[in-house]
Amino acid sequence: MSYLVLARKWRPRTFDKMVGQEFISRTLKNAVQTDHVAHAFLFAGSRGVGKTSAARILAKCLNCDEGPKPEPCNECSSCMEIEEGRSLDVYEIDGASNTSVDDIRELRENIKYLPRPGKRRVYIIDEVHMLSKSAFNALLKTLEEPPEHVIFIFATTEAHKVPETIQSRCQRFDFRRIPRAKILERLQDMAKEEGYEIEERALSSVAKAADGSMRDAQSLLDQIISYCGTSVPDEAVAEILGIAGREYFYRISEAVLGQDPGACIEALDEVYRSGYDINQFYQDLVEHFRNLLMVRLLPDPSSVLDMADGEIEELKNQGEQAGPEDLRRLVSILLKAEEDILRSSLPRMGMEVTLIKMAHLGRLEPLDRILEKVAGLEGAGGSRPQAPRVPSPGPPAKKSRPRQTAAPSRSSDPRPPQEEDRRADAPEQTSPRRIPWNAPDAWQVFVDTVRSERAMTAALLEDVEQWEVTEKAVKVFCEDGTFLFDQFRSKETKALLSKSARDCFGEAQRFEVCKTKGLNDSKAKPQAKKEQVETAPPSAPSAVAEAEEDQAVKTALEVFHGTIKDVKLFGSESGENEETES
Question: Looking at domain 6-176, which CATH architecture does it have?
Fold first, then answer.
């Protein structure tokens, strides 16, 4: 007798022997047992997952001499004929070869005949999506109302190509990819039954390469046995499958976690010289790091990892070298490198750059360890260490523009130049300083206190031409209806200024806004401004320097990131004096 390949020899003969399709097996068994078998079925799924095998088992269940029964006996003449493919009541049609409407017409002529030895006539059409549109249309009426003795079973790997009108007349069953662990278990049973000596790691590589297809796994195992004989080493499996051995993945992940880029390049060079496909190696390496991440995140990773228990333990031992967040970052780097590797004309170079980047990636400190260090510092020093305050760079200190008080005129300044320069060079006051209300610098301290709370409000105070500090209140004098008058009268601003007054001069202080029609020295100012316009050009350095020192101008420059291009001084008959910076 000629050799029978493993895929045919180990084809399941009952529903109980089907692997990975328990839901479908149970449904079909209950349908036969309760006599609720539909007249048309659509079995959809990827290759090698048991679609045709399930169709044959169902045909045997319906035509068994002892049936119909949920499991065929596989001993009667009807079951044997169906299994050997010589039954006159079960027709297996290749949809790829019989695509025309004439083939369907012939089928329609034959279905009217009753089954001769069996009970049901079963038509199994494989790859039904290959039928032409005319063939599908010719089948519609017959499929909707076939004779009572006829059952149609359609099998396809591309269900989306089957017209909706056909699918609506069938009971559809979607066959899933078989989990790798179940394929491995099945291969172990086959190897033991056939007398093959093959390690679990080698069988695991075969199950992985099968990609959910039991038939592909059996065919690969057949090929490996033909090459190696009954004793199969792990190296031979990797050589036949054209995949890098597992040791390469562990070597590279060990080098990456140990931040050794040189070892990464050496391992990749060995992979390249061994003739392995870099693209396939990249995909397997991504899966390897993903598996490392899973074993660090899940207490029982076997539910998401289709591999043997021994491999999971190896992954756990290596995964302890890095935290879950570090592994997630490594997987992200690999995924982002897909464009540079899979779609590049130089995949090896892209792979090398990616591994170097992964090896140089710094490790993140776990949060609980950081908290422990902070707690240790607090226990040792009593408080958390604070970084020294670094003053922000600012414009060089210049002489400030003189401001007018209630008694002296604006042009007079009781402070000597040396004292003023010392004030300009002194560091900025960072906390409120309480002083007597009649101190010489009472107004300036009040403005500085407001500036520590709100710089924009302090800039408004700098523009006030008349003010007065008394024992009970800080007063400013503004013309009614002006912008400054309205701003100081607002509830929020007045509350802020009153609080600053209390901080400076005591709890009895308050802030008041008083109306005025003009400045006290309005008669003297117009002439001074006219002389200044005549003697100082608009762009003179002294005018620019004076404008740079103005607090309102400083604030505007900081907010809008601007510079002073020109200064223009305007005088009017009313004595008003304004500076415009642009």
Answer: 3-Layer(aba) Sandwich (3.40)
